[in-house]
Amino acid sequence: MLKYYFKTALRVFTRNKAFALINVLGLSVGISAALVIFLIVHYEFSFDRFEKDADRIYRIVLDARFNDADGHSAAVPAPLSGAVEREVTGIDATVPVMQFQGDATTQVTVETPAGKPRIYKKQSDVVFTNSGYFKLLPFQWIAGSPATAMKDPFTVVLTESRSRRYFPGMAARDVVGRRLTCNDITLTVSGIVKDLHEHTAFTAEAFISYSTIAQTSLKDQFMMDVWNDWMIYSQLYVKIAEGSTPGNVETQLKTLLSKYNKDVNKDRYHTMSFRLQPLNDIHFNPWYPTLGSRIVHKPTLYGLLAIAAFLLLLGSINFINLTTAYASQRAREIGIRKTMGSSKANLIVQFLGETVLITTLAALVSVALTPLLLRMFRDFIPPGLHFDLLHQSSLIIFLLLLIVAVSFLSGLYPAFVLSGYRPARVLKNQAFADKAQTRNAWVRKTLTVSQFVIAQFFVMATLMVGKQIRFSLNTDMGFNKEAVINFNIPRDTVAGREKLLLNEIASIPGVALASTGFFAPADKGVAFVNIAYHTGKEEIKPNAQIRWGDSNYLKLYQIKIIAGRNVLPEEGVKEFLVNESFAHAIGFTKAGDAVGRELQWNGKNVPIVGIMKDFHDQSTHARISPMVFEHNNGSTFHVKLAPDNAGGAQWTAVIAGIRKQYKQLYPDEEFNYGFLDDTIAAFYEREQQTARLLGWATALAILISCLGLLGLVIYTTGLRSKEIGIRKVLGATVSQIVTVLSKDFLRLVLIAFVLAAPVAWWAIHRWLEDYSYRTSLSWWVFALSGLGMMLIALVTMGLQTVRAATANPVKSLRTE
């Protein structure tokens, strides 16, 4: 029976090659996109799912509120781990994880028998922790004892790959007992563990015993006794005991905080608390980022799933439309089968079988297309993701479920339609004499409209996202960002070297201006300052940021002073500039009235001598922050390049000259620079990825919709071939016939536009609400989308309708 169904299906496909091809292409595009999106979403949601008792592992994080501004930190005060271990009940393991300040500066030195040490610079994933780390994660020990390896100070456990890097050619058991120096700390290797080949936030590869900190100067650097401050390199994980609850532990943490930091939580404007963050939330929560971590935006993943569903739906709609449209051509076959004894159930199974065969062919095409789509979607492909169908059982299961689901969705309705014909009426050519044909036509029209609603929604969303990105990139930031490069120098212990480098750079031809200071006006980081203004009745503490620079800083960035004057180039902080937002935040309606007022900072009164015009210090998502500026030198260099008329060659030469001067003073350091406009463009990396994603989704949606439209046009022109012939005999022109054939389809596209426009307007309006500074919802975006889709539909229909209109009428009429 199955063999018979298979042969029948192949015969049907061979007889209708064009429609089989359209169905396969439409479904294969949708399935390919679904496969790629499944790979991405499955990869991201697989993070930290492998740990034993993962539901009992938490990271302690910090929530704070300062002057009506909420803050969140994955870092906690360093002494918290010891206090938790001593005083908090209901916890099975307390695991601190700390890093050297500036992980990229970690340098490992390994002594060699030849006497010349091997130096490994910028070693990442080096942490200080305790033996509990190896209880949270399923490490396999190759050498050393998990019970004693982290017990003593000045010991280090290495992963197998890190051991091979530092001690090439040595067996793991021989590495144990060898020494290496990490920065200025000499350590003995006490164990080797296998690398974790899992998707996890725990990426460390070198584990220094936590007790080492107390025996070195790191005790002060890591602020091991300070409760009212913390650094980003300090994290704390706990595994709560069975029967314990996060709420119980958080209550005890609140008591700890009150005990050791008595100044906290004095009023509702200045609060602090610890809470437990579940392990499976770390990969997705943007409130608690860590250095080097990759936080994934969950709504983006859900958006990807929605796109996959829409593309699969479009492919299924194509199948339903074309299958029901061609029902009339199979009516006689169905009538004969029923006369010969086939039941409705037999026919439904046969037609669903044909659908499964087409879907399977589409799936095979999709598997071949997936590597190509992965390259197209490379901006969205996380590191570590790969496609290997033969070794990814979850992907095989998903593909099989997808074939079943798409076959059921696509084939069920056509199967019921086709199997429902009455044999007596079919054989008398009366199968479509009742309202069934009209009803089926309305179903096809509804499905076609649905396709173009989805396609036009994608077009409108793509245009508006692109418009907002252009607005953000081209908006006036309030300072000059063009032709400015920034770079940092290392911590310098040689007096005057920074000034010497600045003078050498300023003398290079092609350098318009050079300055040293802190962050650029808008930078990747934020720097808040604890500063207050007394009105006489109350103390106001704006949530303010700080910038500083030398005498050229404001001139280089062309930041305008709208009242008062610039700060004087004096040693020490004796004067402040503030921006308009700061002046408004401390109560001055007219910003210039703040000139002459005094601010309290670090226990001294500092006068405001000038008002800067507001400038954007972050992306257009955020409001402009209150800002103060002071005169000071710094380790960040800001260099304004002269205009380049040589297509970039002049700037290349200038930057090479800067690198040369840098290397003369810092020969062992790398020279890393960046253009400020690139830094600002990176603010909108997520939006640019969204725009590219929508662009691909739009292209695929239009492709699938147009394939379906083309199939219906081919069917319609074939069905109306005699009508076309009669019209031509009666004198109709080609343009008139094309108009008659096209107007019904264009009407469907127009209806789709009317339905898509309000939905797209609402969705885009909600998306734009995330921006404090945003572009307008322009009417032309929607009009352009509608006209564009009409034009694409016309082009899709054009070749086939013109071909039908120019055909010889004798061929279509000679059978009459």
On the 0 to 100 scale, the average pLDDT is: 83
Helix content: 40-55%
- For the termini, the CA-CA separation is 40 Å
Major sheet: 8 strands, mixed
Oligomer status: single chain
Q: Return the domain count.
A: 3
Q: Roughly how many Å is the radius of gyration?
A: 35 Å
% residues in beta strands:
15-25%
Main structural class? alpha+beta
Shape descriptor: globular
Strand runs, count: 26
> Helical segment tally?
24
Point out poorly predicted stretches: 430-439
Membrane topology: Multi-pass membrane protein
Subcellular location: Cell membrane
Keywords: Cell membrane, Membrane, Transmembrane, Transmembrane helix
InterPro entries: ABC3_permease_C, MacB_PCD, Macrolide_Exporter_MacB
